[in-house]
Known about the structure:
By secondary structure, the protein is mostly helical. Helices cover 62% and strands 0% of the residues. The protein has 17 helices and no strands. The protein has helices spanning 2-18, 44-53, 56-60, 79-96, 101-110, 119-129, 136-151, 158-165, 176-199, 210-216, 220-235, 245-263, 266-269, 272-288, 295-300, 306-316, 319-330. α4 (79-96) runs parallel beside α11 (220-235), α9 runs antiparallel to α11 and α10 (210-216) crosses α12. The mean pLDDT is 92.
Amino acid sequence: MEKMRSLKEKTFAIEEAFLSPYATKSKDTRGRGREETPCAMRTDFQRDRDRLIYCNAFRRLKNKTQVFFSPEGDHYITRLTHTLDVAQIARSIARALSLNEDLAEAIALGHDLGHTPFGHSGERILNKLSPLGFQHNVQSLRVVDVLEKDGDGLNLTFEVRDGIVNHKKSGKPATLEGMCVSLADRIAYINHDLDDAVRAGILTMADVPKEIVKVLGASSKERINTAITSIYNNSAGKNFVGMDEEVETASERLRSFMFDRVYLSGSARGEEKKAERMLSAMYAHFMSHPEDLPETYVTLLERYPREQAVCDYLSSMTDRYALYMFNSIFVPKGWTFIDEK
């Protein structure tokens, strides 16, 4: 036990000696919502990382859409591979700026746990259906605070929870590590979604405006390296994380290009009407028959509005489970006839 304590103290000492004065030191965490016995070996941020990677919501990410609904192919980005991309990029940024890599990784692993089936289309549909509204970053925080562990939540640290809910561009993370994840999220999805669009035949690299390619690069590897290098050159030694103006402008132009040509295109949203009819039908069914919800979500009705519990359940579904549940509720099963001869 004494050796394990000394290992954590060694981590504290390394952080104090080598991290930036603007980094979030593990020993300085603002703590958890509920008191609990600290781990003898791991820092609180390392412990949060482990809790996230072993939770049920994280496992489900492998079968959730990133952009294209249930794509036929093994190499398209899923919500899980996107999350791993974000974690890798966030750690690279944090390492370059001498920030806390463990904190950045924990935030990245949890940032998309609240995403719906069918990608951002599912998010738009639930936001339209529920009078309470629906935002995936807010739902991600709800997953770790409430839904995991049968309603007990994961009891994560303030810093990880703050980074999760504030990872969108409009958010204002309280830590530089949270800012790393917010930037890493945008870097990852723009670049890898572009690769998927080319793979799907929606675009060719020749379609990307030349002025963007000139600044950022012609491949994912080049564009990600350009972004991280820009962040380092613009942010090292500062209480700030951001790109230089030229790279940020080019990145925003690439993002706008992706919205025009991919995210809001007929190819990506061609099945959205079907998804809307399906999610709308299930939403109406569970609103009228809350007793059909799984036991965990029925229990939530004692503390939360019915609309919230129904959104909790629907947003937790993977793409294929949503199809299965819709068929179970609404599609008649065939009869088995017995031969009476």
